[in-house]
Amino acid sequence: MNTVIRRLTGHLARGLAMIWVVTTISFVIIRNIPGDPVRGQYEKLIEQGMGPDQAERATAALYGFLPTGSLWDQYTGYLNGLIHGDLGQSLSTPGTGVATLIGSAAKWTVLPVLGGTLLSFLLGVTLGVYAAIKRSGKLGDALAISGSLLHGVPQYVIGLLVTAIFTTLWPILPAGGPVDIAFEPGFNAGYLVSLVQHATLPVLTYALASYGGWILAMKSSVATVLGDDFILAAELRGLKRGVLFRYIARNAILPLFTILALSLGMLFGGAIFIETIFNYPGLGLLLVNSIGARDYALMGGTFLVITVAIVVANIAADLLYAVIDPRVRTGGAA
Amino acid sequence: MITGTGITKTYKQRGNLLGGRDVQALRGVDFAIEKGGAVTFIGESGCGKTTLGRIVAGLETYDSGEIVIDGTPMSGLRHRQRQAYFRRVQLIHQDPYSALNPTRTIHQTLHAPLALRARQMGRSKAWAEERARELLTLVGIDPGYVLPRYPHQLSGGMRQRVVIARALTVDPEVLVADESVSMIDVSLRLGILALLKDLRERLNVSVLFITHDIATARYIGDDGELYVIYRGQVVERGPTEAVISGPVHPYTQALLSAIPVLRGVERPGAERVVPTEALDERHADTGCLFARRCPFRTERCESERPSLDGTGHGHACFHPRPRAVIPVEASA
Amino acid sequence: GVGRSADSGVYTTIDGAKQIDATAPINPFNPQGNTFLGYDAMTLAWPKNDPVDPNRFYPGIAASWTVTPDQGEVVIHLQPKARWSDGKPVTSEDVRTSIGLAYTQGGTAYAVDPKAAGSAADVRVVDERTVKVTQGASKSNLFLRNVLSTVVVPAHVFGGLLPADFWTTLKAARGTGPAVEQAKARITGLAEKVISFAPAKDVSAGPFTLERVNPGEALLVRNKYFYANHNIAPDRVKVLNYTGNQQIWNYLISGSLDSAPFTAVPTGVLKRIRETEGNEVVKGFSPVAVSMAFGQTRKPYDNVHVRRALAYLIDRGQVTKVASPEAGTPAKTTTGIHAKSAQAWLGDGIGELDQYQVDPAKAAKELEAAGMTRKGGKWAMPDGTPWKVEIHVPASFSDWVAAAKAITSQLNDHGIDATVLTAADYTLYLDELAAGKYDVGFWLMALGPSPYNIYQRIYGSANGWQLLAGQLTHVPPGTQGNWMGGPETIDGVNPGVLTSRLNAAGPDEQRRIVGTLARLTNQQLPVIQLYDYVNTQFVSTSRYTGWPPADSDVLRLPAGVWMQLGMIKEKAGS
Amino acid sequence: MSVTQLLPAPATPRRNFWRGVLRVMRRKPSRMAGVAIVALFAFMGVFGPLLYPSPLPRDDNALYAAPSWAHPFGTDFEGTDVLALVVTGTRYVLLAGLATAVITVALGTGIGLLAGFHRGRWDTVLMRLTDLQLTIPGLPLLLVLSTVWKFTSPLEMGVVLGVLGWGGIARAVRSQTLSLRERGFIEAARGLGLSTRHIVGRELLPSMAPYIAMNMLIAVTGAIYAQVGLFFLGVLPFDANNWGVMLNLAVFGGGALTSAAALPYLLAPLLAILLLTLGIVLVVDAMDEIFNPRLREE
Amino acid sequence: MTESFAPGVRVQDLTVVYRTPMGELPALAGVGLTLAPGTITGIVGESGSGKSTLALSLLNAVQPPGRISGGSVEIDGLGDVVRLTGDDLRRARGRQVGYVFQAAQNSLNPLKTVGKQLLDLGRSHDVADLPALLREARALLGRMGLDGGRVLDSYQHELSGGMRQRVGIMLALVLNAHLVVLDEPTTALDMITQATILRIVREVHRERGLTTLIVTHDIGVAAEVTDSLAVMYGGRVVEHGPTMEVLGSPRHPYTRGLIRAIPRLSGDIGEATALPGRPPTLGTIPAEGCVFRERCPLRMAVCDTEDPAPAAHGGRTVACHAVGRPVNFAVRKEYV
Ligand SMILES: Nc1ncnc2c1ncn2[C@@H]1O[C@H](COP(=O)(O)OP(=O)(O)OP(=O)(O)O)[C@@H](O)[C@H]1O
Ligand SMILES: Nc1ncnc2c1ncn2[C@@H]1O[C@H](COP(=O)(O)OP(=O)(O)OP(=O)(O)O)[C@@H](O)[C@H]1O
Ligand SMILES: [Mg+2]
Ligand SMILES: [Mg+2]
């Protein structure tokens, strides 16, 4: 355990440094984005039929509390806020804290990302084992190629195809939104069913988009383990197929767990396409919308949260490794 | 002529936080390699042989002590100058499979250092070509066959010869051969050993031979010196034949006892020294380093460390006694 | 049927004015607030969609009103039976509080600055259900419209936002002397507090109250205290969120919407929508047009001949067909006014204007007049350098992108090298446009029915005329958002001055000014009017009937108002 | 040694190599197909725009026409042949992809080599940098960046994508370098006093070349997808046609996800992406085997 | 301990081929070998001579792309192993035949403690009394000079090379197998550890009454422990007989050359010489004729065309055309 704790402290320090750098970079970039939230709001009001004067005054009132001061002051203010857990105020949803917005978006990202990733992980790992064992067969080949193909194709292609199929050609699933409002939120059948129905397509897309990667990773991992001496040795000791399979699976899956942790972190940022296509109100969509609205605070906050997710995932991946691999855990040479 | 005095080396264990023990690979080793001479280091796994070889070849730094090459102490020199000296010492790796770049032909492999050499000596390109053939012939292989080929097309023995030829391109004074025959088929081992011996005689290169198989030491040169090293310390040293036939340190005797007897051809020696327990780096290093495993240890051994004594055949033991541990010929 | 709200009594629609943000408060002063106009948010009255008269209304919280001819004084009589959803009556005090809150937000009628045209000078409670609002000295003919557009909120919920001395502070802010600025600051300083105020639950005077909201939808339920409850058919209203038109199309095709707000829709999609049982399209007047506008300080667009040449080359019918076949009609010509209003404003005068029918020969002549030369089939600048027309549009407006692409294709056909450049989003587009970075860009205009609003889009701040605190100034091109950069006067006419006069002018003068500006716009072409929008809405007759007919003057109002007016009835048998 | 023993220089191994390539190709016909597909796209990239008149012809009476012989994928919103759009759009897409790949690989390899070869302090600093690059969420940053920076040319696009994407390669090259460094032949080269340039350029890089080449192919696809994706989201300004623009216009303008009429307009670029991916996957599969050391044992 | 039953093994005409790019090539060509019950037999030969392949064949465990293409392996109590399939084969492995792997350094699952792997072994072979199995394992380890309890609680990486090798032997014997195959049991161990392992092998063999097969390329190792010795070259057993005899008076020119090539501690250095040429690989084994002829000092015309069949010479089997001819043999003998 000592090892784990020492690793953790080291990682935390490095992770914090990393977050600080990323925060600073994003701050600088974001403050240099052209486009003025005030003008955007103004034109929006005009389109809604408000008179030009009225729109002007309304926007002035709305943005009376835009960040002011020199860039440096804003920066220190921002950092200071961060340290106190304050991500600032949203401009596009005035009066609401960025943290609140991110919090409510995050829960919608977590659901399909987690679902999709776990689904694809299970699927990919199972098929990957199969592909490795049937390496030279036709089916194994097909699995490997389809895996590479799906792994190579970008998420949005899959998302668009899935949407086209299930909402246009064969409309059996809702095309967007997180859940039907008709149901009282909570643990009632209607709500849960609706939740699942709405999440199905995004989850399916995540699953399809990443399962190919899992197949490939698992295939090569299994192939490596199969080549390891201890598997042959175990076979020569007459171990049962089930036991043998567990030997292979556990050893092969070990490196994949770290990738799993990492990809969960990455997916927070990668959800952009899927959430846009399915209009799913998660972090990705929040980021896209915040950029459209030039909501600096929200943009910075979302970016920060996505970064933190990655850093945390990195740390988690490493610790996970340390916990489940005895070679690391007990501090021996691997 | 290369001499080393009091060479120490400690590996700091990094990254591995729990096992954060430092490893003392060398604890003050003295040695001297005469021009054209042969020096062999033997010892158990992990006792610092490779480390020493790499230090001598300039591929590894050392913590203290001094290496003097042809009268010039290395510690006073700048990195670049030191490199120039160390170029005279060439390391021949244990594994001939990884010692050659699989993507380059033997021709390309030999040409690179020779071209450099030609430039340094103001010779022509043709000289480099000629020299490559010469060297291959010298190590006993057919240049015509070998030059255009890739390493994977050669056998282990051939590769090891190519590796030696490559080392010879810079006209070294010392060849450091680290376990150079352990990965080569039995039937070919003697060939390499004979080659090294031959090179000593013909080119007047010295050979620093590192092995855990003492028998091979005899074939590099019976006029050579043998150093028995244990946990970074030289425990016995002397002319090869003398040490082999009359070992006095229990560790040397244990090593020699462990060598399998070729029954049918040889008979085992009358006595045999078997260590009382296995090597463990965690053993205390107060007193004699071998004490824990020594069947003949006394109280003194556990508190005081013997140092290598004298010149010629010397040892670091409080209770030296010759024992008949080596096998004798069956016919005798 | 997923997404199809089969359960009776639920009315499903979309609020075209905003995207739903579940985290926003239930507060009409918050631009993202979760209140829905016509359903749970009420104004005093609902403006009719009249092509020329901005001051015609349907009653809302105000059952009736009287106004003096110069709009100096408006007396409002509240609905006698109006109650909040918690059972409390809607009173004059509620209206006064709402107006007070509007002051902190700076509405046109409620500007703190007394010099601002059309701002209210005094708000007086006459009795429990009567309020009188007086206009200040700087009169605007839009005063009534602005007052009646006031959103009414319950004083017993929002009242606490106004400090006790609010009205005296307001008076001080509108007076003279050193304390004015301080008082002003105190008023505007309230804005943030008002915007972020988040009541625990919705207290509505409208036919519905908000039950709950999630990022995708909002659910409203019937307010049993609504004054005209017998008019309201649905028990519940579901408002769906949308982020892009294609989502609305999807909902329509799946038949889940009872009514949908205005959307641009491609022909193929329209066909699919129509195939869904019960779906019907209702079209009406929409006082908006889209145009191609020029940065007139940039060569060669500073030359009116070039602009005219382009006008002669663009086939507006074709552009409309490509870009917005259902929600647009090709502009008859460029007047700055929507064709329908133009008829009313200009009458026969239209005939005297140049129609700019496609005429390559005339275009060539105009180009030659501008000194352009033709080399190897391509037009080049007078100095011989290549001419490339770059048309900028925001990527998110699909009909604009299609229109711009159609235009470039047409220009290319006529030997003018043209491309479309998109901006990532509308905000960025506007910013770069305002910074004068574009030669040619798309521009919304003809925002009727008020003539001032119409021409303000061409001869307002985009062209250098700034109306601040009742004071008109002209800034040089390239500064403060003057990206059109047209001349301040043309043949002795100052269009900016004329436009600002529209604010206060009487009907006859307005007609005269509009005539002048239309002619000027037609000749000078600061913009080329491409197509006029048609308010295209969708309704479904499968669950409800009584939809407003085509061209109805309620068509721009939310369906909630239709219900208030007693139009929507549950379909028999459903 | 007699002169007759002068053998013709390394002709045999090279010929063996190509024979190996051929054998690997022939073993699975799908690999041939892969090469053909990639070649097809390369051809479209180079000659595509020359195959059609510029500007592309439009047919005002066939907006969103259904697929036919004349228009295998139908037409777009202004009656232009969709297939022609895909073909002429290839160049832009590939160019940006190539630019990205070159930068990614150059930066990644350079940094990875430097870190792995020099180890020590260099390594620490460069690897921290790499970690940082890998930590920054790429797509979100691109979104944010695309509002600051208008990627008007495919090359600019490539530069930015490259700068955001070298981390993976750098890390991999470093670990390769570290492991090669432990191999005897690198150490021997150093011991012989050969120059760093020689060691890196002649000994290290060739050993990693196949690996780098495969990474480069993968980087090309990655870049193409990122770029098409940004166009699809509409965050990049566009002036020329390319696949991403087509996707954007089909979905957000044509209602391709809503009505079947515009579906071919959407499917054409999607299929192009799928096909290109398939081609590259098959080629990488072949390369994987060609450069596998197993094949050298003969 | 149960009364010992040491099985005999008869390998007949065993042919094993590997699929290569050049087609299926034989790594073993018609090998015949008999292991007498209760003896230690050694197989020596250079790299690639087919030692491991032969050892694996004893368990019918040749790994793809290899396969046994002909011949039989009769083990007392098991029958012809080549015909065994499925669960029968699996149960034979471990229970009847113990195998100590060539790279015993890595023959343990890195994620499980030795004890857990022992339990897996027990369960796989339906051992009812697992505690007894653990006790037996601890006893065996103790016999080999290890602290059984500690070892069973250790992961592979916590054990040294010598300890791992002993664990490997323990796992091969713990189910009471009486035929044990050890493939290169001491490669990669240093001298002193090697000596210890060899001593253990010998003692355990005697105590438990085993039939043991040791595969090694180090003749010294074979000489130390074996009773009889088989020399392999190019997929054939070229000489087989009692160890002392084979080493003391080798008949086959390859055996002779091999012994002469071994560096030794005693004797005249000048006598030792390397074998010329190099050992064949799968691709370079001649298709017909004697496989050793390229390196053979006694090469005759017949060697080019005819593969010499193994023939009995006293207690020995030798496969060489020259050995039948006393003249040649006598001539060469002077040099030995
Ligand atoms: N780079 C290194 N980092 C840390 N420790 C090292 C390193 N190289 C060697 N050691 C340690 O130093 C000690 C001596 O190692 P060295 O390789 O010199 O032994 P050796 O005698 O050559 O052993 P072998 O016979 O196994 O080759 C060992 O304990 C080893 O673990
Ligand atoms: N998987 C394989 N594919 C192809 N050929 C193989 C394979 N395994 C072994 N061989 C070949 O079969 C022959 C015999 O191999 P085997 O492993 O039995 O030799 P060995 O005597 O055990 O050698 P070593 O001493 O190196 O272990 C060799 O020529 C080898 O190249
Ligand atoms: Mg070593
Ligand atoms: Mg073997």
UniProtKB/TrEMBL annotation, chain A:
It is a multi-pass membrane protein. Residues 106-321 form the ABC transmembrane type-1 domain. The chain crosses the membrane at residues 12-30, 110-133, 153-173, 253-278, 298-324. InterPro entries: MetI-like (IPR000515), MetI-like_sf (IPR035906). Keywords: Membrane, Transmembrane, Transmembrane helix, Transport. The keyword Transport applies. PROSITE patterns: ABC_TM1. Signal peptide: none annotated. GO terms for biological process: transmembrane transport. It is found in: Cell membrane; Membrane. One of its GO terms (cellular component) is plasma membrane. Belongs to the binding-protein-dependent transport system permease family. This is Peptide ABC transporter permease. The lineage of its organism: Bacteria, Bacillati, Actinomycetota, Actinomycetes, Streptosporangiales.
From TrEMBL, chain B:
The keyword ATP-binding applies. GO terms for biological process: peptide transport. It holds the Pfam family oligo_HPY. One of its GO terms (molecular function) is ATP hydrolysis activity. InterPro entries: AAA+_ATPase (IPR003593), ABC_transporter-like_ATP-bd (IPR003439), ABC_transporter-like_CS (IPR017871), Oligopep_ABC_C (IPR013563), P-loop_NTPase (IPR027417). Keywords: ATP-binding, Nucleotide-binding, Transport. SMART domains: AAA. Residues 2-256 form the ABC transporter domain. This is ABC transporter ATP-binding protein. It comes from Acrocarpospora pleiomorpha. The lineage of its organism: Bacteria, Bacillati, Actinomycetota, Actinomycetes, Streptosporangiales.
TrEMBL record, chain D:
Its main location: membrane. It holds the Pfam family BPD_transp_1. GO terms for biological process: transmembrane transport. Residues 90-284 form the ABC transmembrane type-1 domain. It is a multi-pass membrane protein. It is found in: Cell membrane. The keyword Transmembrane helix applies. GO terms for cellular component: plasma membrane. InterPro entries: BP-dependent_transpt_permease, MetI-like, MetI-like_sf, OppC_N. Keywords: Cell membrane, Membrane, Transmembrane, Transmembrane helix, Transport. The chain crosses the membrane at residues 32-52, 92-117, 212-236, 256-284. It comes from the Bacteria. Belongs to the binding-protein-dependent transport system permease family. This is Peptide ABC transporter permease. It comes from Acrocarpospora pleiomorpha.
TrEMBL record, chain E:
InterPro entries: AAA+_ATPase, ABC_transporter-like_ATP-bd, Oligopep_ABC_C, P-loop_NTPase. This is ABC transporter ATP-binding protein. It comes from the Bacteria. Residues 9-259 form the ABC transporter domain. It comes from Acrocarpospora pleiomorpha. Keywords: ATP-binding, Nucleotide-binding, Transport. GO terms for biological process: peptide transport. One of its GO terms (molecular function) is ATP binding.
